[in-house]
Structure formats: C-alpha cells, structure tokens
Design brief:
Layout (H helix, E strand, L loop, with lengths): L4 H22 L5 H6 L6 H11 L3 H13 L6 H16 L1 H4 L9 H6 L2 H34 L3 H49 L3 H11 L18 H17 L2 H9 L3 H33 L9 H10 L4 H37 L5 H25 L5 H27 L5 H21 L7 H16 L11
Helix pairs in contact: 1-9, 1-15, 3-9, 3-12, 3-13, 4-13, 4-14, 4-15, 5-11, 5-13, 8-9, 8-15, 8-16, 8-17, 9-13, 9-15, 9-16, 10-13, 11-17, 11-19, 12-13, 15-16, 17-18, 17-19, 18-19
Length: about 475
C-alpha cells in the first residue's frame, strides 16, 4: 500500500507528538504515587475519557463497523448490558476502593482473605493482559507495516517503543492525558471517515438510511435465546452486564482510573457516564458499518474487519487519510499504554514489594515501577512478534482468556463482599474450579463468549462457598 508523503508526515507527526507529550508530562513526575495514580488529583472528565479510550482498541475501531457491514446493528445489545453492569459497580465495589489509599484492586482481596489470594489474582491479571495486549500490538502493527513499508518485526517494535517511552516518562498522568487526546483523535477520525463515506452514497444521509433499512441493516434487537449466539438480547443484557461488572469492577486496568480521581463521587460520575458514552460510541461505529454496506453493495471482502480499513486506504483523500490512520493508532496506543502502567503497578504493589522489598523507599518504588513498565513493554513486543506464527483461531482463543479471567476474579470479590465465613483456602479452591470450568466451556463447548464471565464468577462463588463448609472458615469479616 502506498500513501502520500503528506499522509505519512501526518501519521509520523502524531506518533512523535505522543512521545513529546509524555516527555512534557514526565517533568511533573514527583513520586511513585504520582506515577501510579496521578497523585489522586485527576478531574472526573479526564477519568471518563480515559475509561472509554482504554476499552476502545484498534480491533474495536475496525471490527465493529465490520460486524454491521456483515450483519446489522444487534451488537448494540452488548453495550446496553455494559452500561447496566457499571451501575452495579458503583454500589458494590467502588466504595471499597476508597477506604484508605489503595493502588490496586487486588489489595482489597488481601485485606479480606490474605496475601496469596491477592498474588494469584494479580498474576492472572498481568499474564493475561500481557498476552492479550501483545496480540493487539501485533494487529495494530499490521497497519503501520502496510502504510510505512516496514518489516513486521520493526513495525511492532516502533509502535511498542513509542508507547513504552511516553508511559515510562510520564506515568499515569501522561497515560490519562494522552487517552483524552487519543479519544478525541479516534472519534474525530471516525467522524471524518463517516462524512466522506456519506458523500460517496447517493442521497447522502437520507439515502443511506433508506437503503440500509430496506436491506435490514438497521435492526438493533434480537429477542431469541440461543446460548451459542453472542449477539442476542439476553446475552447482551445479562452476559454483557456481568462482563462489565467484572471488567470495570475488579480489573486493575479500570480500577486504577477510579483511584486517580479526586474523590469517590467524581470516580462514580466518570464511571456512570462512561456507560452512556460507550453506547453512543458503538452505535456510531455500527452506523459506519451499515453505511459501508450501502456504499460497497455486492463487493466481497476476505474478512469483515478489512472493510473499514479498505475504505480508509482506498478512498480517503490527503490529508484525511493520515488523520484517520492516526485515529487507528490512537485506539491502539490508549489501550496499550494503560495496560503497561496497570500491569507494572499491579506487579510491583501486589507481588514485588510485599515479597522482596517491603521496606522500599518512595524513590526505590518509583524506579521499580518504571523498570517494570519497560519489562512489560518488552514482553508485549515479544508476544506481538510471536503472534505472526499463530493462527487466527489461536489469537481469538488467547483474547478470550483475558475476557473470562476477570469473571473468575469477580467471583472471588463476591465471596469477600457477600459472605463472612469463606476463608483464603476456600477462595483459592473456588478460583481453581472456576478456571477449569470456564476453560472447558470456552474451548470445549459452543457457549458464546458473553456468558463466560457469568459462568466463571458463578462457579467460583458457589465452589468457594461450598468449600468453606469443609475448610477452615475465615476469621475476617468483609
């Protein structure tokens, strides 16, 4: 693929600007708390933008329009469940994160059960996050390889290095502010592409809506019930809600954003509003996909994910192409930078400091968490390079693991919040059985992925509760 020098300059300028911004934010770095939670002084609107940007990756940017091109708008049923799940997090978990000055979600498990449960949950997070986001890095680097003519390995290293550098230099504050910039860029880029797309359709917006409606592309709800179908109303409402409770209630990637807020009230405002923003955002991406169907008509594509990418490359004029390509990388870098900072924060606070440096000074803590940021960046680059030899099925399977692990951790949190008798041994037993069960369901049955979190959390909770009647009860109260 060849792009103009102007478009390439716009794209490279964006990448350099993100690096420069990290350098600028890094000059305000004061201590380890500033690096990990932005000194707990971040306004709600910045936390809101970071939440939404973090859960929007390049895969989302390209796959959601592809879904609507191939099917219809029924994917929107999942974000409705996502928004409902956030409401449960507000009352169930958020108050516990503001008791004291926590740095990770898993410190709550330590207070309730003990150190081993915290370590297991934290390690599950960092391992699956590294695998999943390393593969996201690989998928994002494919675009950089095509537009810049780089070798695949070099494209992965370049994209990974830029993200690592500004995360290393600026810490959580840089991550949050670049998330805001990247949110504006990818939404603006999508809007620019949609505007050009409507201009290519006879009749503009009215012509698009009429043609899409006649083709059945504007259908939003499917009230059937098939446990193997992921895009039906009950899978979206129930499975999506539980998945959101897990991903936004007990996953360090999101919890760390709440801990940056000035208060619990501001964190709650950001989290609650993010559900509404996500519904509108996904609805917009789906409309782009429906418009692509009207525009391309009977044209065939090897994969649905490639439809929007093809339009961007083939039909966007200069410098719009460079801007929208920057939007693609914005979606990637917002997720990757958040992953690096959250993984480093979780490992250092939950595992490294308690086990190896319990008396570490603040200077040592800052140096250590920065060092682990580089380590996780290198690991993600390694996973991304290794991803070239994986089949698409393997890639999908690894990404699925990152989704259902949060359900297992949710089950442990629920044991801590809703029971008094369950101790650490019973909780660990529940996690083990939950992992085995959801692994079997994911790889040995046809059950759709939105149900994984419900199955994982339910199995973990029930097993842990039953095990507590055999094993020693907990001496601690929630």
């Amino acid at each position: 693929m060849k792009i103009s020098n102007t478009d390439l300059a716009v794209l490279l300028g964006y990448l350099l600007a993100m690096l420069a911004f990290g350098l600028w934010m890094g000059r305000r770095q004061k201590d380890a708390a500033d690096f990990m939670v932005g000194s707990r002084s971040v306004p709600w609107w910045l936390v809101l933008a970071s939440i939404v940007a973090t859960e929007t990756s390049t895969v989302t940017f390209l796959s959601i329009p592809g879904f609507a091109w191939k099917n219809d708008l029924t994917w929107i049923q999942l974000p409705i469940g996502f928004a409902i799940g956030r409401l449960a997090v507000l009352g169930l978990f958020l108050p516990r994160y503001f008791r004291g000055e926590l740095f990770t979600a898993y410190q709550v498990l330590h207070e309730r059960f003990g150190g081993r449960t915290k370590v297991v949950a934290s390690l599950l997070f960092v391992v699956t996050r590294t695998l999943a986001d390393g593969l996201r890095l690989f998928l994002s680097a494919i675009v950089l390889r095509e537009v810049a003519g780089l070798d695949m390995e070099l494209a992965i290293v370049v994209l990974g290095a830029v993200t690592v550098l500004y995360t290393f230099l600026g810490g959580m504050r840089a991550v949050l502010w670049t998330d805001l910039v990247q949110f504006v860029v990818y939404v603006g880029g999508a809007a620019l592409a949609f505007t050009v797309l409507l201009d290519r359709i006879d009749g503009g917006l009215d012509g698009f809506l009429t043609a899409a409606d006649e083709a059945g592309k504007l259908r939003m709800f499917d009230f059937g019930f098939d446990i193997s179908a992921p895009y039906q109303f009950w899978a979206g409402l129930i499975g999506g809600a539980v998945l959101s409770i897990a991903s936004h209630g007990v996953d360090q990637l999101m919890v760390q954003r709440y801990l940056c807020a000035r208060s619990q009230r501001e964190a709650a405002t950001a989290l609650g509003l993010s559900g509404i923003v996500v519904i509108f955002q996904f609805a917009f991406f789906l409309l782009i996909g429906a418009a692509l169907f009207v525009h391309y008509g009977d044209r065939t594509f090897a994969k649905a994910d490639r439809v929007f990418a093809t339009f961007i490359v083939e039909e966007l004029p200069t410098p719009a192409l460079g801007i929208v390509l920057g939007a693609v990388f914005s979606a990637a870098m917002s997720t990757l930078s958040s992953s690096l900072n959250s993984s480093a924060t979780a490992l250092t606070n939950d595992v490294w400091f308690p086990l190896f440096r319990p008396d570490a000074s603040d200077r040592v803590k800052l140096r250590t968490v920065r060092a682990w940021t580089i380590v996780f960046g290198a690991l993600q680059v390694t996973v991304g390079i290794a991803g070239q030899s994986m089949s698409q099925t393997v890639v999908d399977s690894v990404l699925a693991i990152s989704g259902f692990v949060t359900g297992i951790v949710l089950g442990v949190f629920l044991l801590g919040v809703l029971t008094r008798r369950v101790g650490e041994a019973a909780a660990l037993c529940g996690m083990l059985v939950g992992m085995a069960t959801v692994s079997y369901v994911a790889f040995g049955t046809s059950v759709a992925w939105p149900w994984f979190a419900l199955i994982g959390s339910g199995t973990t909770f029930v097993t842990g509760l039953l095990a507590s009647f055999v094993l020693e009860p907990s001496p601690k109260a929630p």
